[in-house]
Structures are given as structure tokens and as C-alpha cells.
Amino acid sequence: MPASGNSTSSNIKVEMLNIYQLLDLLRRRTAMYTGEASVHSLGSFVDGYSFCQRQAGMAVEDEKPDFGSFHDWVANKLGYSESASGWRNMITSQRLDAEEALWLFYQLLDEYRGLYPRTLASVAQENLEDSPQPSKGIRPAYTSLTIEEVLPAKEWVAIIAKRHDVISYRRSADTIEKAIQEAENIFGIAPDAWALTAT
Predict the structure, then answer these.
(1) Distance separating alpha carbons of residues 106 and 94, to the nearest angstrom
(2) Distance separating alpha carbons of residues 19 and 49, to the nearest angstrom
(3) What percent helix, strand, coil does the chain show, rounded to 5?
(4) pLDDT tens for each residue of 65-121
(5) Are 157 and 170 contacting, i.e. CB atoms less than 8 angstroms apart?
(6) What whole-number distance in Å separates Cα of residue 24 and Cα of residue 43?
């Protein structure tokens, strides 16, 4: 049975994030909020958030482009004839690994929003080939290694290893210096192997 009305509740002002603000908040530690690093878990979280917004009668402005059109955009981007299966299924079908599919989601989301992260540092191909096996962990397979700014907040950076065009490893760090240190531990890449991009 619903609780009786509280006269003070109508005076409480709650500011809801739009979907993009929510996803920007979740991006760094998605699994901490959704329970696991997967597109389906993230999609369920977003659906629940949107349901709460509707139930509370809270209109959220400044959601451009319209996230409701993301289904059709993903279908066109990935070569589907229609979008009935939804962005979750279409993106998940592109990767065998759930976490790699999640990284692809954020990559596609940035492109849909017209955001193109800037590469802050990279490792030349010859340095990738000559790098020793790291002493800690297992080095993921990769053909390129970069450090990129994370948009739109630019409050942290990401180490991104790719197998050709597929992200095979992604790890966040607070600064470029910490990212380089992390890359040495994971990939065996010496700090002096990095070329910083001029700002």
C-alpha cells in the first residue's frame, strides 16, 4: 500500500541526469554499478533509470542526439537491415568477449554523439614488437597501444590496446604518467618508448 503523502516531499528538488550524463558517470567503473562488465547489464541499468524518470514524471532536457535513435544508428553502422533486435544485441554480436563488447558500445556511443577522443601518447610499432613479456599479468594481444583522453569530462585517461580495429584491452588511469606506469606492468613497455602528442 502506498505511503501517505508527505507535505515536505513536494519541496524536494531532484535533478536527474540525462542518459549521456549517466553513461559518462558509469563509464570508468561500469561493473561496479551494473554488477558486471557487459552491454546487457548496462542496458538493463539504463532501462531502469529511464523507468524511474518516467514514473517520477521528470523530464530531462538537453539529450542530444536523441538516445532513442541509437538503435537505428547502430543498425546502420554495423550493417543490419533493421534495428528490431536493439543496440544491446547488435553490439554484443560483434564480439565474443562481453567486456570487449562493452568497450565497443562506448566507442560507438562517442561516435554517435560526435565525440572523438584525442590520442595523448602512443607507442611506435617497432617498440611494440621489441617489448619484453611483462613480469606481472598476461599481456593481451595487440597491434597498437595508445593513451587517450576520455570525453567529455577529460578527468581521466584510458590505456587502449587494439588488435587491428578491435579494442582488446582498456584500463583507466588518473594521469598520463600513471597510465604509462600501468602499461609497463601489463605490457612490458618501457616509459621511454612512448611518444607524447603535442597539445
Answers:
(1) 14
(2) 9
(3) 45, 15, 40
(4) 999 899 999 999 999 999 999 999 999 999 999 999 999 999 999 999 999 889 999
(5) no
(6) 14
